[in-house]
Every structure is written in structure tokens, then in C-alpha cells.
Design brief:
Elements lengths: L8 H11 L17 H5 L8 E5 L7 H4 L5 H4 E3 L17 E4 L2 E7 L4 H15 L6 E3 L12 H6 L7 H14 L4 E6 L15 E6 L13 H12 L5 E6 L13 H13 L4 E5 L9 H13 L5 H12 L4 H18 L9 H7 L3 H17 L2 H24 L10 H9 L12 H19 L10 E2 L29 E3 L4 E7 L8 E7 L11 E6 L2 E6 L2 E2 L4 E7 L11 E7 L6 E9 L4
Parallel strand pairs: 1-9, 2-5, 5-6, 6-7, 7-8, 8-9
Antiparallel strand pairs: 3-4, 10-12, 11-19, 12-18, 13-17, 13-19, 14-15, 14-18, 16-17
Helix pairs in contact: 9-10, 10-11, 11-12, 12-14, 14-15, 15-16, 16-17
Length: about 600
């Protein structure tokens, strides 16, 4: 692999100046250099001093060759991990005071004890001389300490920035050779009015700056935010995102979008970029992504398309052109769509924004043919890629109400687990669990199918379902959703206190029994209704309490009185009565002309 860390022509001119004894002209406030990682190996690393791509590692030498940093070696404390500085039984004064009680889910940044713990952690693990970065971020929630000291520092009920900034500056004064970063995210969104110490920086989250190939209404505000931070620190870093964190398997086009963003960051004076991907978990084509994104981090104006073709041909000798063609097609398709890419989304959102279905199907078939011809490492890599794309094919089948066609694909998908690919999302949803849920769904579909007169019948929502989960056709497609994957197959409602559906009777004749399938998943805050009520022409005729089944499924049956004679324009109404703050997920409604 050729070395891509070449110095630009201005570096040659600078060395001439140094030789003439004029090195002082190069001394600027932002020249503070840290030990380790790519900052040392690649000089100034223009335009960014810190560059990291959080995807599965390539060969051990690649990070150095690509001028990339690594959070494991370049940070003494990273992300929302301040709790790692605490002893086993910390003094409770380190925790936030809210409503007169200590809340262990957040910190009190006015606590002298907390500062002492952090100082001890720095001394014991890194000393005072070795230059290291430390992230001093609040816990990732909306809790803000309301003790007298924090309020005196300027905390509000929603903003902890004043106490956090004071805390960080105290650490920076204690350890002038280390670098301390605050964050701009969550409860830390305040920007100081004056300059911060030279060894204090900020990590600005791009969560509120949508991934889109076109300009968005949020872009100007984000640029303004970066400019404001650049006015008070020479070390503005951006924490950005490069994948769908609920679906690592479906290809995700990021190059056109990221080139636009990196240009903006360089113009705004950003000095570091952390691209958050699937971490050490497998994600589709992450090897190609790492190599191409590394090129853009070195030079946001680089011709990434040529680099993509080069990378694909080198890493996939027999299938490189096939891989490159699909990735370029998908990039162009997403640019034409101009939609915002979801950071947490299902197959429906993918189809709306970044997944050209026909091209994906053709690509998957082509990879299947290529892997037969390939050998060695390429054959293994193509095999994993082909099986990973089975997940997307299975989700497409579910989305289109044809889940029954996926039965033969599940065993091949499960083979990924034996190859070290356990999970397919940030939430650690497993492929084995997905396959088990899928088989359970097929079983329930077969159970409900016989005599089901509601299959394909259009229902009517009296109450509006939640946005993005309002496809009424999923209720009569013959399949429930998967409790472990809420994005597809569920009609979801957080309405209070009831959610109502109407079933027209003109197409189904003498309906006697309804079977309703629901889901329960505490991790997603999906709960069962207290009861389900059935009304005919405004009169309640039956009530049922959901019965829990295996693997998060639940169901109940409701009956229409035998004497009821439906008129052509009559309808039944199902009312789901919510309990507490539950969000309800309805997966399928089957109807029968008999009570058995």
C-alpha cells in the first residue's frame, strides 16, 4: 500500500524558512502537539490535527499510513466515561443534586471531590508530563445538577455548561501539559464569551446537523456554532456520524455527504474530526469506507471517486468493479434524492433516503456470483458481504409484506455469527436473535393465516399513529413485527389514553372473531395496553386483556355477537387503552367468520 501521507508543497517552503532561522513565523497558538498517534507521524495533518474513523480496524500499520488517530491510544479519557475516574465507592457529593436528592446518573461539576478523583486518575495513569487528551463530558442524559454551587456558577435546569466549563478550566490549570475537552451536546451547549486556556478544547456533536447531500436549514446554525467555538479555542473537534446505528448491514452512502461537511469544517477552523461508525463491529464495506474517508480527511477536495475505484480493485481483485459500481450508483442515487439519512432507522427510511432497491438486489446477486470465482481472503470477504446483505433482503421482504419468502435465507444469515459477526446494531441486536424472531414471526403468520378474511383489507386509523410507524397495511399483511426490531412490521402509537382503529365490514361479511397481535419490549419502552375493547356501531360488545406469549409477543381475541347483522357501511372499532406512559405496538389483526 502506497504512503498517502505526503507533504504538500507549502511544507517544503516552510523547511526552507526554518533553515534560514525564521522558524518563529511558524509558531501559532494551535501548534500544541500531543504525544502518540497520527499527530506525530503525519506532522500537522492539515487541515485537521486529529482524524479518526471509528470502524473495524484494518491492518495494524494502516492507521499510521493513513494518518489516523485512535481513541484507545490518543485519549486518556474518552466519551461519556467520566465514571471511570471514580473509586468503587465514591463520595456521594460527586453526583448531581436534583430535587434535594443525589442522582447517580449525573455528576456535580462543582464538586471538589470529583475534581480530586479526576486529578488522581490523571496522575496515576498518565503523570504530568506526557501530553494526553481527556474528555470531560457529562453523562449522556438530561439531568443537570441544581446544588447551590452549580446554580451559582450559572447552571439552569437544562444547561450544565457553566459548571462543566469551570471544572475543565480548573483541570487545565492543574495539568498545563495535558489537553482537556468539554463537549457541545446534550446538557452542555453553552459557549463561553471569552477565550479558554490554550489546553482546553471542545468536541461539538453533529447530531443536530442532518446527514444530507444538500444544504439543510440546520447548516447555517451549525456553521455559526463552530465559528463561535473557534473564536474561544484553537481546538474545535467535531463528533460526526457515518452509519445507521440500527442497521450495520445495509450499505450506507457517506462520501458525497462527508466531503461537503469536511469542507465546511475546514473553513470553520475545525481542527479535529471523529467519524463515529460501527466501532469494532462488522459493517458492510467498512474497509472501503475507511480508506476513502481517510483520503477525504487528509484533503476534503480529493477525488474520492477515483480513490474508491482504486481501493475496490485492490481489496477485491475479482469483484472490485462490481463493488465500486454499486457504491457509486448508491451515492449518486442518494444525492439525487436529497433526503436526510437516518442515524437510527429501519428499512422504510432506508428506501426513502439512501437505498435503491433494484440496484441493491442486482448487487447482491452479482456478489453471489463473484464469491464463487474468488479465492482466499477475497472469497471469505465476499462471502461475509453476501451474507450480510441477506439481512437487507430479509428486511425488504418484511417491508413489502412478503416475509414468507425469507425462510430459506435465515440459515445463511446465521452463518455470519460463526464468522465473528454477532450484532447488527449499536444496541447489540444479534443476528441469531433476529433469525429466531423471524422464525417465530413466520410461525405466528402460519397460525393466523387459515381462514383469515382480513388479509389485505385496508383498515382506518381513527387516532393518528406515530410518525414513521403509521403504515396501516402492516396490520393485515399476514405477519407480525419482530419485538427485537421495532422499525418494520409494527403500527406504533404513543397516544393517550386510547388508540382507535376502524375495520370496515363491506369486504369481509359476517365477522365473528378478531385476533390481535401486539409486542412488549421494555428496552424500547413498548408496553401492552391495559385492555382492548371492541365496539359495533358505537356499542361495546367485548373487552380482552392481552395475553403474553413467548419472545415479547402478546395477543388477545375478541368476539362479535352472533345476532349482529352487518350492513354494507358498518364497521367495527378496536380501542386500545394505554396504561401509564406506554407506547403500544400492534403487529397484526386477523379476522375469522367463526368463533373457533
Amino acid at each position: 500500500m502506497r504512503n498517502r501521507c505526503t507533504f504538500p508543497s507549502w511544507c517544503t517552503a516552510l523547511m526552507v524558512l526554518v533553515s534560514l532561522g525564521l522558524v518563529a513565523v511558524a509558531a501559532v497558538a494551535s501548534s500544541w502537539v500531543l504525544q502518540g498517534g497520527a499527530s506525530r507521524a503525519c506532522g500537522s495533518g492539515l487541515p485537521f490535527e486529529y482524524k479518526e474513523i471509528y470502524l473495524p480496524p484494518l491492518n495494524p500499520s494502516d492507521s499510521q499510513e493513513l494518518c489516523l488517530n485512535n481513541l484507545d491510544t490518543d485519549w486518556g479519557l474518552w466519551g461519556h466515561n467520566l465514571h471511570k475516574t471514580l473509586p468503587t465507592k465514591p463520595d456521594r457529593s460527586v453526583f448531581a443534586l436534583v430535587g434535594g436528592k443525589r442522582n447517580e446518573e449525573q455528576f456535580c461539576f462543582s464538586s471538589d471531590v470529583l475534581r480530586a478523583y479526576v486529578e488522581a486518575y490523571v496522575l496515576e495513569n498518565y503523570g504530568e508530563e506526557a501530553r494526553t487528551r481527556f474528555a470531560i463530558f457529562p453523562a449522556d442524559n438530561d439531568v443537570v445538577c441544581q446544588c447551590a454551587a452549580c446554580q451559582g456558577a450559572g447552571n439552569t435546569t437544562k444547561d450544565a455548561s457553566p459548571s462543566i466549563l469551570a471544572f475543565v478550566e480548573q483541570l487545565a490549570g492543574r495539568f498545563p501539559r495535558h489537553m482537556f475537552f468539554t463537549s457541545h451536546y446534550g446538557v452542555a451547549r453553552g459557549i463561553p464569551v471569552g477565550p479558554m486556556p490554550a489546553n482546553v478544547g471542545v468536541m461539538v456533536s453533529a447530531m443536530d446537523y442532518p446527514l444530507c447531500a444538500r444544504s439543510t436549514r440546520e447548516e447555517a446554525g451549525f456553521r455559526s456554532r463552530l465559528n463561535a467555538w473557534a473564536a474561544v479555542t484553537h481546538h474545535v473537534y467535531v463528533w460526526d456520524y457515518i452509519c445507521n446505528f440500527d442497521d450495520y448491514m445495509t450499505p450506507y452512502p457517506i462520501f458525497s455527504i462527508m466531503q461537503r461537511r469536511l469542507r465546511l469544517y475546514a473553513e470553520a477552523g475545525v481542527k479535529g474530526v471523529f467519524l463515529n461508525g460501527s466501532g469494532e463491529d462488522y459493517s458492510t464495506l467498512s474497509d472501503v469506507k475507511t480508506l476513502v474517508l481517510a483520503e477525504l480527511l487528509q484533503n476534503p477536495d480529493a477525488d474520492w471517486r477515483s480513490r474508491l475505484r482504486e481501493v475496490c480493485r485492490r481489496r477485491y481483485p475479482s469483484a472490485g468493479d462490481v463493488v465500486a459500481r454499486f457504491m457509486l450508483e448508491q451515492e449518486a442515487w442518494a444525492v439525487r434524492r436529497g433526503a436526510r439519512l437516518p442515524l437510527y432507522g429501519g428499512i422504510g427510511e432506508a428506501l426513502d433516503s439512501y437505498l435503491p432497491e433494484a440496484e441493491l438486489t442486482n448487487f447482491h446477486d452479482a456478489i453471489g456470483a463473484c464469491k464463487v470465482q474468488a479465492t482466499g481472503d477475497e472469497q471469505r470477504a465476499l462471502g461475509r458481504l453476501w451474507r450480510a446483505l441477506l439481512f437487507t433482503r430479509l428486511e425488504l421482504l418484511r417491508h413489502h409484506g412478503r416475509a414468507g419468502g425469507g425462510a430459506q435465507l435465515l440459515s445463511e444469515l446465521e452463518r455470519l455469527a460463526s464468522e465473528g459477526v454477532e450484532t447488527y446494531s449499536e444496541a447489540a441486536w444479534t443476528l441469531r436473535g433476529y433469525a429466531a424472531d423471524y422464525r417465530r414471526m413466520l410461525h405466528l403468520g402460519k397460525e393466523a393465516a387459515q381462514g383469515n378474511v382480513l388479509r389485505g383489507v385496508g383498515l382506518q386509523a381513527v387516532t393518528q399513529p406515530d410518525e414513521g410507524y403509521d403504515r396501516l397495511e402492516v396490520l393485515t399483511d399476514g405477519f407480525t413485527g419482530l419485538p427485537s426490531n421495532y422499525h418494520c412490521g409494527w403500527l406504533i402509537s404513543s397516544a393517550r389514553p386510547v388508540f382507535e382503529l376502524r375495520i370496515p365490514l363491506g369486504r369481509v361479511g359476517r365477522l365473528r372473531r378478531l385476533r390481535v397481535y401486539m409486542a412488549e419490549n421494555k428496552a424500547f419502552r413498548m408496553g401492552l395496553p391495559d385492555r382492548v375493547e371492541l365496539s359495533v356501531s358505537g356499542n361495546q360488545v367485548d373487552v380482552a386483556v392481552p395475553e403474553r406469549m413467548a419472545d415479547g409477543h402478546a395477543h388477545c381475541s375478541l368476539f362479535v355477537p352472533a345476532h349482529f347483522q352487518a350492513k354494507p357501511d358498518d364497521s367495527l372499532t378496536l380501542t386500545f387503552v394505554a396504561g401509564g406512559e406506554r407506547t403500544m405496538a400492534i403487529g397484526e389483526i386477523a379476522g375469522y367468520n367463526s368463533i373457533n
